[in-house]
Amino acid sequence: MAKKALIVWGGWDGHQPKEVAEVLNKALTGKGFDVEVSNTLDSFKDVAKLKELDLIVPVWTMGSITGEQLGPVVQAVQSGVGIGGCHGGMCDSFREATDWQFMTGGQWVSHPGNDSVEYTVHITDKNHYITQGLQDFKVKSEQYYLHTDPVNKVLATTQFPIADGPHVPNGDVQMPVIWTKLYGTGRVFYYSVGHRASDIEMPESLEIMTRGLLWAANAEV
């Protein structure tokens, strides 16, 4: 039986949510998933339907979510449904929703230098399914500074600072770029690259996102 996924896109248009959702839909359908794509957060309201899924993929930046919409997602992931996403589409979705941040493992707070920063993604765990066989690679886009959950299993990092800002006097720090965690029995995957659809279409990014979503859905084999 095919794995089931729900992709929900919307929010700030600058992150090209529709286009990113299309890229991820193609990647998942290419792996045999039965994918539903929606552009309304009301798709989250039916907890029974969500619990029948294998994977939830949010592609929603800087929005607001009601308790009726958030509660079922949290319950579904706790019960074992996977969740995975990238950039602001998952970790800058709902700034006031601390339950969402608790579940996803992090929250965007800044991107010094905006979208013109060239930085390196360092693969720190070469044995995990998501990153095995991958080499360090460069990205020219937004470099996300995130507040992250200490329980996250970090698979890749990037070094700060590159661009100037108030963080510079603190010195060098390795900021997580890829992580996994558990929320209840649900698997959580996040990748901080993805300001535009073209960032996700990069070969390295597409491989990471595809593997990460498969892992979150317990479909890596």
Give the secondary structure arrangement, pairings included.
Layout: E1 4-11, H1 17-29, E2 34-38, H2 47-51, E3 55-61, H3 67-78, E4 82-86, H4 87-91, H5 98-104, E5 106-110, E6 117-123, E7 137-141, E8 145-148, E9 153-160, E10 173-183, E11 186-191, H6 197-201, H7 203-216
Parallel strand pairs: 1-2, 1-3, 3-4, 4-11
Antiparallel strand pairs: 5-8, 6-7, 6-9, 9-10, 10-11
Label this structure with key terms.
single chain; 221 residues; alpha/beta; Rossmann fold; nine-stranded mixed sheet; 7 helices; 28% helix
Fold and architecture overview:
The protein is of the alpha/beta class and 221 residues long. The protein has one domain (4-216): Rossmann fold (3-Layer(aba) Sandwich). It is built from seven helices and eleven strands. The strands form two sheets. Strands 2-1-3-4-11-10-9-6-7 form a nine-stranded mixed beta sheet, with helices on both faces. It has a two-stranded antiparallel sheet with strand order 5-8. Helix 3 (67-78) links the parallel strand 3 (55-61) and strand 4. The mean pLDDT is 98.
